[in-house]
């Protein structure tokens, strides 16, 4: 029996008419092709992704965009690191390693929120070089807004120490390296001495806005003679020559401290002042105290001509506070005439708030 014949490949001849048809198809709008999106369109897409809710979805999607192609990498990183929030020990460790491995990412951070108290339950657990090392912080040269949450008070151990030289050095590291930082918020940060608090907040060279929320100190402390001589005007509000916004939280008779604070301001760019006065109870002398503070005269001075808003927020659990509020415009006649006075009343339980003035 003879074997079957071998299969032969038959080449199909492409006629001129077929070539012409293929050419016309590839030139038509229906032909498959790679189309590059303009860069501005890509940036608009990334902006929309950045605004996704919840924020966790936005972060995950931006990470996917950064890994998709080389063109999307840098724009995605800019949006990923522009605002960083870290509140767990693992997050502090990963973020620190990331900045050390890729120092260029540190320059992208513009807003940083750190909650040290949530990450470390006791000051003894803080790393010796701080929650973030100085090397990692040094690269954040474009940081503009910083929030530091301090150690939380242990209700079971109320005498547990909450101040730490490591935490103070951590705050001071930003003052040395982040020369564009204009906003600083210290939340529940406890200092061993009042002078330690003063040294920290006055070490930021271009600070415009300072916010202290329930920040406290143990004892007054003292400045050395050399510090007093060399930096006589540094450790007070006069040091903030670029200050634009001031917010004070005071209780009861401590409201007299507002006068001290306003007299030490030297910035000519003040825009807003907000005073939160928490009153534990209504006393008949309080309206007279308001009238005798002389704040209206102080705020009429040349240093405050750029003011656009003065908010006086009375926080009390007494209904009579509304009567006080109605009489406030008489205590601030000049501000009322400039139409920049805003009077508010807030009802809430009383609690102690400590703040620098």
From TrEMBL:
This is F-box domain-containing protein. It comes from Polyporus arcularius HHB13444.
């Amino acid at each position: 029996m003879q074997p079957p014949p071998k299969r032969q490949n038959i080449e199909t001849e492409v006629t001129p008419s077929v070539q012409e048809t293929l050419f016309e198809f590839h030139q038509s709008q229906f032909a498959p092709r790679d189309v590059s999106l303009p860069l501005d369109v890509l940036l608009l897409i990334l902006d929309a992704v950045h605004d996704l809710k919840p924020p966790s979805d936005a972060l995950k999607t931006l990470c996917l965009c950064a890994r998709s192609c080389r063109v999307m990498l840098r724009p995605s990183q800019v949006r990923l690191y522009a605002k960083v929030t870290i509140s767990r020990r693992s997050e502090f460790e990963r973020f620190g390693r990331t900045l050390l491995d890729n120092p260029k990412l540190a320059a992208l951070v513009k807003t940083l929120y750190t909650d040290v108290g949530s990450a470390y339950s006791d000051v003894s657990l803080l790393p010796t070089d701080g929650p973030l090392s100085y090397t990692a912080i040094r690269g954040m040269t474009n940081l503009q807004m910083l929030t530091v949450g301090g150690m939380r008070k242990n209700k079971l151990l109320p005498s547990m120490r909450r101040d730490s030289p490591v935490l103070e050095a951590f705050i001071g590291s930003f003052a040395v390296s982040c020369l564009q930082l204009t906003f600083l918020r210290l939340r529940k940060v406890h200092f061993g001495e009042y002078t330690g608090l003063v040294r920290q907040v006055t070490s930021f060279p271009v600070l415009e806005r300072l916010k202290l929320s329930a920040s406290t100190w143990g004892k007054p402390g003292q400045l050395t003679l050399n510090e007093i001589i060399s930096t006589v005007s540094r450790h007070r509000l006069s040091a903030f020559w670029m200050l634009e916004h001031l917010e004070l939280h005071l209780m009861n008779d401590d409201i007299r401290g507002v006068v001290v604070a306003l007299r030490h301001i030297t910035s000519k760019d003040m825009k807003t002042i907000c005073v939160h006065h928490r009153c534990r109870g209504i006393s008949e002398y309080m309206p007279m105290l308001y009238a005798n503070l002389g704040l209206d005269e102080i705020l009429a001075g040349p240093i405050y001509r750029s003011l656009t808003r003065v908010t006086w927020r009375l926080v009390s659990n007494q209904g009579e506070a509304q009567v006080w509020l109605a009489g406030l415009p008489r205590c601030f006649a000049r501000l009322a005439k400039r139409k920049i006075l805003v009077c508010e009343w807030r009802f809430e339980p009383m609690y102690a708030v400590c703040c620098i003035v």
